[in-house]
Design a protein that fits this description.
The protein is an alpha/beta fold. Helices cover about 25% and strands about 25% of the residues. The longest helix is centred in the last third of the chain and has 17 residues.
Length: about 575
Amino acid sequence: MQSQDTKRTDPELLAVARGDRPADLLIKGGQIANVFTGQFEMGNVAIFGSRIACVGPETSARETIDATGRIVAPGFIDAHMHIESTMLLPGQFVRVAAPHGTTGAVLDPHEIANVLGIAGIRYLMDQADGLEMNFMWAISSCVPASHLETSGAELGVDDLAPLMDDARVVALAEMMNYPGVVHAFEPVLAKVDLGLRTRLVDGHCPGLSARELQAYIAAGISSDHECTTLHEAHEKLALGMRVYIREGSAARNLDALLPAVTESTKHRFSFCTDDRHPADLMGEGHIDNVVRRAVRSGMNPVTAIQIATIFTADHYRKPDLGAIAPGRQADVLILDDVRSLRPVMVYFKGRLIARDGEFVGAEPPPAPKAPPAPVRLSETLNEASFRIPVRKQGSKVRVIGMHPHQLVTAEHIETPKVENGLLATDTRRDILKLAVIERHTGTGNVGLGFVHGFGIKEGALASTVGHDSHNVAVVGTSDADMLMAARTLEKAGGGQCVVKGGQVLAVLPLPVAGLISDQPVETVIAQQRALLDASQLIGCPIEDPFMPLSFLPLVVIPKLKLSDRGLVDVEAFEHVSIEV
């Protein structure tokens, strides 16, 4: 039987380290990824209870695992992610992420906070307690993300202060209101000061450069996960920021940023996924996927492991995590080989929780009921709510240029199609109507615009996952189908759906805040696959159109976005008209 959780100062742990008593587990003969020296070193890892007792010498143990020919590495850590984007409760997330070698994640519950406020944050934090993963929490700094949208909650510095005293919290999460920081808005700086008082403050400043970037960093913000170009990464690195290389389901920045990682700069990087869908987690993987892709692109394998482990642990001041070393928590991976780097066995606190891609840890307990968050649409919402009358004859219109694998969008100026005095969709040119409908209080707000990039030929897609305020986002070819899609999600209590010709083809219910399923991961993936199959039936060529759809209301990422209050020019940080 394995010993109980062990403190570093436990005399029995030290006795194992000295060789005076047997370990609980000996992982023998593997190539240990030494994240301190940057080398692979042949040796053994002795574990007692939840901690590593010694590394290198062979010792007696109650159980021995032969790791000859395999890699022994610390558990991987995601430096920044929103668990809500997995659409899974924490227990189900552990089931799917642990087999990929994830033993830690820094979670920003920003999405549920925008719907349910503090109650939503505490719900997820409490759900994660006792699970077989190191959940580290970054408390959401921008709820709402801006004044240009309607959110379900508003959190000020007095609301956040009690959470910053919670031992589970490691940072104030991404400070998205970078104009507020740069121009020293007092309420924004009060939140930054709150984070700096006892923790770190993570950043979010896409495209910010020159003197404005200098001001943002001077406020004390130490990281950024929004770099999309090599130039941007170099500038932020040179000014002292830690750069998170993001490879999620929507934003994929690894290839663009890898050249910035050198022997001199590598310690200033971390890996993160930010937003990852369940099928991608199950299939491609999690941080292990980022590590593999980096190595295939030429990165030294130990460097990739360092970026996935110790550099993140050090940044968040977690000296127990991120390394195979005496006294560290025994979060240990046995990887098949240096080429594929696939986890064969995953240990968390010295306990085996995954083997050969299957979760073998403790099944999560049933989740308590989440705080209520019904989808409230105005009773007056009808087909006319989606009509866009021509204001000025002969004018051109702004069209959002969507990229399926980036959060940034373009602003296109196009000659519109006009029918009966109304601006209309034009499927021939792939200019579709986009709507964002306020869903928290039923105000009746409907923001309207046009988008290019979805390729839908007939029908509509809708989602209550619409970063950051999570109103109902709908894209489609007809007002009738867009209305039906919105009403379908109202009836479901949140989720995602596909409609064609007045018929609902598929629905993925997300009853927890309109963001998260209460079902097992296998059910969620099956429902998502049916949804994506249905999106193909309406002519959408994108593998997962719901991910880019969810970011079109994100009014803190340039260039042109849409909120329930209208089109937003993010660079100017103001509303603009559809017609130019």
